Amino acid sequence: MTKTLTFTRVKTRMTTRNSERERALVTTVARWFRRTARPLPWRDSETSAWGIVLSEVMAQQTPVARVAPIWLEWMDRWPTATDLANASPADVVRAWGRMGYPRRALNLHAAAVRIRDEYGGEVPADVDALESLPGIGSYTARAVAAFAFGQRVPVVDTNIRRVLARAVLGIAVPEPPRVKADIDLMESVLPTSAKESVAVNAGIMELGAVVCTARSPLCGDCPVAEHCAWALAGFPANAGRTRTPQKKYEGSIRQARGAILALARNNPHVTASDIATAVPDQPRRDLALEGLLSDGLLVDSAQGFSLPT
Ligand code: SF4
Question: CB 3.0-4.6 Å disulfide test: which of 42, 85, 172, 228 passes with 112?
């Protein structure tokens, strides 16, 4: 069945879609996922909704191999949202370690405070309520509703967008993200059963992470190759679409922020001269410091710079 989407180019592509092939595709993905899913610690059936929130926020911009040990530490130290809410922001930022984008740590703390104060310590199950929490965007809210509460909710992240573009629409590189069109597309392939839809969401995401990767898709080993629109079309290149090159970390403001934050994690107070030694390049240092202060990850006092208390 052809679905109507607001995004014209996607709509054009969708006229060539084949619902029977797509049903076979998602059934195969779900079966493959149940058989081969990586044993990530948060995939244990006993993981709480709070554990899922943590895993989704942590794994958003950090590889799962780096997230796993820190997720275990956090679950041991702060097993509930209330436990994290009662911790100091400085401890939370320190425990974030070197996972990158540390603003997520402060957002998680703020979300935990809201969950403690407004929801009696229980993570809300509703997508809109989840999305109203600090640092929880559309992807995370949907992922928590699906993976923590078993709801039939389309989940869309970068991996899912790429697999849908290739396997469903038959194009090598996805169009730029458009939240509604992307969600509509995922919705159109989700089975009606909530339980099956959760496996399809997780399975397509896993396929994009370990098989249908951005640079070198392993089409020869792909469980859905025989149902993949792009493979069936002979792997045509996208007209005029290329991947956005990744920004270099070395010499970036992000690297300078990381160096300054590492000092603050290990010392109660850090002086301007400590920071100048760690980041000699002044313009980069100033921008990094300004960003950390405005993000609330550092505070300035008479003794120097420190993590927020
Ligand atoms: S056949 Fe290749 S392009 Fe298609 S879903 Fe599998 S890995 Fe991706």
Answer: 85
Ligand 1, atom 3, lies closest to the CA of 166
Separation between Cα atoms, residue 257 and residue 161, nearest integer Å: 30
CATH of domain 8-38+153-232: 1.10.1670.10
User: How far apart are the CA of 235 and the centre of ligand 1, in A?
Assistant: 9
**Of 104, 115, 127, which Cα lies nearest the Cα of 55?**
104
CA 233–ligand 1 middle distance (angstroms): 11
pTM as predicted:
0.85
Tens-digit pLDDT profile for residues 65-85: 999 999 999 999 999 999 999
Indicate the CATH number of 48-147 among 3.40.50.720, 3.30.457.10, 1.10.340.30, 1.10.357.140. 1.10.340.30
Question: CA-CA-CA-CA torsion for 138, 75, 106, 142, nearest 10 degrees?
Answer: 0
Question: What percent of the chain clears pLDDT 90, i.e. is strictly above it?
Answer: 87
